[in-house]
Design goal:
- The protein has one domain: STAS domain (Transcription Regulator spoIIAA, 2-Layer Sandwich), CATH 3.30.750.
- Helix content is 39%, strand content 28%.
- Strands 1-2-3 form a three-stranded parallel β-sheet, with helices on both faces.
- Pfam families: STAS_2 (PF13466).
- This is STAS domain-containing protein.
């Protein structure tokens, strides 16, 4: 299993760079895990990238999991009502 950490912003300002990095990551293995614990800010552009990568992995027969969702990630997922659609376990912190 290959692992990747995303750090900092996952926003419209970093979308192109992060999309490229995630596409390259998808090519590395069939079992992939992306750690989102250090994402400090995320907007709908970042959310779209996560959705796109999940669909691309599924289309390619790969297992891509998002883990350790930061508060910023959880907020945009909850706001857009997409938390359950990713199919990844989400641990809520109090």
């Amino acid at each position: 299993m290959k692992n990747l950490d995303i750090q900092g912003e996952l926003t419209i300002y970093t979308a192109a760079t992060e999309k490229q990095r995630l596409q390259e990551f998808l090519e590395q293995d069939n079992q992939l895990e992306v750690n989102l614990s250090r994402v400090s800010e995320m907007d709908t552009a970042g959310l779209q990238i996560l959705i796109l990568m999940k669909k691309e992995a599924e289309r390619s027969g790969k297992n891509l999991r998002y883990v350790m969702h930061s508060q910023a990630v959880l907020e945009i997922m909850e706001l857009s009502n997409t938390t359950a659609s990713f199919g990844d376990p989400v641990v809520l912190h109090s």
